[in-house]
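Morning run. Coffee first, then this:
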Amino acid sequence: MKSLFFSTVLIVATLIQTANAALIINEVNLGDEDYIELVNTGNTAIDLQGYSINFFESSSDVFTFTNSFFLASGDILVVGEEPSHDIDVDFNIPINHGTAFSIAMFNATGTLIDFITAIQNINVPNGASFIGGPLADVVDDNLYVYQRVKDTHSGNTFYASDWTIASPTEGQPPIAFTAQIPEPSSFAILALGMIGLFSRKLKATK
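And here it is:
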């Protein structure tokens, strides 16, 4: 019974941590200086060490956060191919107007956490889907970018309807998206309830 109790506490604690941390791709720029914006839409800081981004056109170029790097709640991180960006990947990012590409982001355990593809559904990770896509081409990559307006993904299912083509807003707050993140308070209430329940059961068996 005690092992079940502690297992439940561990599961609930994991759920709370997951609910508090959610990293998404917010903007993709195909202009002269390719970059993507990452946003922490959760309630706690995320250590990006071990996270990786797979940029795919005709082949893969992967950037991995090799060192500890904390992104605070609500913060934006610009990852690009120039030293002027927050993070310089040190290679030419292979995303271009007129050519099919995809971007897949994985957490430190190798779990897919975000995905986007344009012009053609290309290099879609196993078990993932991009519903309603691919995204249409950006006609003028000096004026327009792919920009996220909401986050309705669930598991490995991502939606083209979460994205639009808009003017670049590098480093600025996301435009009116609503991240689908469970309220931490809900998990806290659930945790307290489950802990109380198992505590009573433990006392009853003594």
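The chain has two domains: 1-22+183-206, 23-180. Good start to the day.
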